[in-house]
Specification:
The protein is α/β, with parallel strands linked by helices. 46% of the residues lie in helices and 16% in strands. The chain has 3 domains: 47 residues, Transferase, Pyrimidine Nucleoside Phosphorylase, Chain A, domain 3, CATH 1.20.970.10; 247 residues, 3-Layer(aba) Sandwich (Pyrimidine Nucleoside Phosphorylase, Chain A, domain 2); 85 residues, Pyrimidine nucleoside phosphorylase-like, C-terminal domain (Aldehyde Oxidoreductase, domain 3), CATH 3.90.1170. The strands form 3 sheets. The protein has a 6-stranded mixed beta sheet with strand order 3-2-1-4-5-13, sandwiched between helices. The longest helix is centred in the middle third of the chain and has 17 residues.
């Protein structure tokens, strides 16, 4: 078998066999197939696509290119959740403790943020002492003991994806549904959970800009999961405004804590309740979607979700007193109000502009070597649909930097106003299962 024949076959629009996909992934990981041939195949896939069988084969081969996590010693149904990333996405920090408080087992591997989206691990590390690197034995023991653990990915999980992802990033082959879907699902499947809920975001602050493309990606990933024997479902959620009010690491942790106290913003509570209901159904704890919603709502109301967050933080070495007293989190030295220059109703808040502004204030990374300022970020004082008067507060910026004037203008300009009242749509637009 020759790599050039595989490239030409896909270039001409034919489906690849399992043997050909295996040959490619195995050879690329070993270093036998050079980057230039891998990038040629990736470009052929961009233009010619892949059918469901090819995508499932590609995902399976990538998943088995390195270690897979065996969670069979964890009692009960293991659930996992993945978000495609968005501005203000602190979902795991509230959702994880809630589903665990309801009896589900959440065994989750998360990533760091790069660019305008913050990673769950970075937010966790804003809590002093929090460990994100547990051994596999510690990880499994903790889930068995308290029902939840969230850790960083190990170095040997899906090495094929690490190589391919870096290559796609510099060869213009990122935006391909088969390549995106196999990248995400290979990591999720290798992590070992029985059930996966995908939160696929669309809009200005998301990777998928339109609802149609997000639906295509979500449907593809659900079909991959089912083909490989996992209960996989997806929700499509709106990222045409930031999620919740807080953007930035410890600001988002504080909002997750407030949500578990019953004081969360409407859209974030809606997302957590919907996602939690589905995950409890998947775990066979809830008898229906409505039963799941009721259980999640009860876990907020009776404080069991908040108690589980404290237990989770303590188990991974974090100082749980920060959960009890979030005022202990460091506050940035400069707090700058952003006022509206006109009146109207908020039609849209450009999530990408808010995310990039938070990064420029110190709350994100432009490169992997950048050090995040955990106290930097933005609190929104208005959301889509809210009425705004001239001179009224739109948002508040938090930074320790001296040069922030341009950022404040960008935050102001991210708010789009119109004169007539605006209809507020639900954050969850579709459920695919």
């Amino acid at each position: 078998m020759r790599m050039v024949d595989i490239i030409e076959k896909k270039r001409d629009g034919f489906a690849l066999t399992k043997q050909e996909i295996h040959f490619f992934i195995e050879g690329y990981v070993k270093g036998d197939i050079p980057d230039y041939q891998a990038s040629a195949l990736a470009m052929a896939i961009v233009f010619r696509g892949m059918n469901d069988e090819e995508i499932a084969c590609l995902t399976d081969e990538m998943m088995h290119s390195g270690d897979t996590i065996d969670l069979s010693s964890i009692k009960g149904v293991k659930v996992d959740k993945h978000s495609t990333g968005g501005v203000g996405d602190k979902t795991s920090l509230a959702l994880g403790p809630l589903v665990a408080a309801c009896g589900a087992k959440l065994a989750k591997m998360s990533g760091r943020g790069l660019g305008h989206t913050g990673g769950t691990l970075d937010k966790m590390e804003s809590i002093p002492g929090m460990r994100i690197n547990l051994t596999e034995e510690e990880f499994i023991a903790q889930v068995n003991r308290i029902g939840i653990a969230i850790i960083g990915q190990t170095g040997q999980i899906v090495p094929a994806d690490k190589k391919l992802y870096a290559l796609r990033d510099v060869t213009g082959t990122v935006e391909s549904i088969p390549l995106i879907a196999s990248s995400i699902m290979s990591k999720k499947l290798a992590s070992g959970s029985d059930c996966i809920l995908l939160d696929v975001k669309f809009g200005s602050g998301a990777f998928m800009k339109t609802l149609e493309k997000a639906k295509e990606l979500a449907s593809t990933m659900v079909r991959i999961g089912k083909a490989l024997g996992r209960d996989t479902r997806a929700i499509l959620t709106d990222m045409d405004e930031p999620l919740g009010l807080a953007v930035g690491n410890n600001l988002e942790v504080k909002e997750a804590i407030a949500t578990l106290k019953g004081e969360g913003p409407r859209d974030f509570v809606e997302l957590v309740t919907n996602a939690g209901a589905i995950m409890l159904e998947q775990a066979h704890i809830a008898s229906s979607y409505e039963d799941g919603q009721a259980r999640i709502t009860a876990a907020i109301k009776d404080g069991s979700g908040l108690r589980k967050l404290k237990e989770f933080v303590s188990a991974q070495g974090g100082d749980a007193s920060y959960i009890e007293h979030p005022e202990k989190f460091p506050v940035a030295s400069k707090i700058i109000p952003v006022y509206s220059e006109k009146e109207g109703y908020v039609r849209r808040i450009d999530s990408l502009a808010i995310g990039v502004s938070s990064m420029r204030l110190g709350g994100g990374r432009a490169t992997m070597d950048d050090v995040i300022d955990m106290s930097a970020g933005i609190i929104l004082n208005k959301k889509v649909g809210d009425k705004v008067g001239k001179g009224e507060l739109l948002a508040t910026a938090y930074t320790n930097k001296d040069d922030y004037e341009d950022v404040i203008k960008d935050i102001h300009d991210a708010f789009e106003l119109e004169q007539s009242e605006v209809v507020v749509h639900p954050i969850v637009h579709a459920y695919i299962h």
